[in-house]
Amino acid sequence: MIDDDQLILRAFSRLLKDGDYELLTVSDGEGALKILNQRPVSVVISDEILTTEEGLPVLKTLFANHPCAQKIIFTGWPRETLDWDKIKACKPFAVVAKPDIDNRLRKAICAAIKEYEKQMTL
Q1: pTM: predicted TM-score of the whole model, two decimal places
Q2: Domain boundaries, the chain
Q3: Cα separation of 8 and 94, whole Å?
Q4: What is the C-alpha to C-alpha distance for residues 71 and 38, in angstroms, rounded to an integer?
Q5: Would you say domain 6-121 falls under CATH 3.40.50.2300?
Q6: Which of 70, 73, 74, 87 lies at a CB distance of 3.0 to 4.6 Å from 112, suitable for a disulfide?
Q7: CB–CB of 74/92 below 8 Å?
Q8: Which residue, 63, 18, 104, is CA-closest to 55?
Q9: What is the per-residue pLDDT across 45-84, written as a single tens digit (0 to 9) for each?
């Protein structure tokens, strides 16, 4: 999970602690790249806008070298204000609005993990 807001990262940790997930959290793209270069990761959830950089270019860079990892973009911006061309260029598995932290995000993570596992068996 990449988010520059520590409250969001803690909320995710609480949300996913009862599942079969190992959640790794970082606050920027550089930290995410370090993790991806050290170990395989099935799903990356990234905020669309980070303090020092936009999340979408970070995702494009991260997955140029790690194409099997599934991408979920997590945004607090209203859907009508998003730059959908940039989002589509990242080829995300899902786009989830921040207020919908529990139900939709949990479903998106489960589906993304299944897609990752399917790709790894091909």
Answers
A1: 0.79
A2: 6-121
A3: 18
A4: 18
A5: yes
A6: 70
A7: no
A8: 63
A9: 888 766 555 666 677 777 777 778 898 888 776 566 566 7
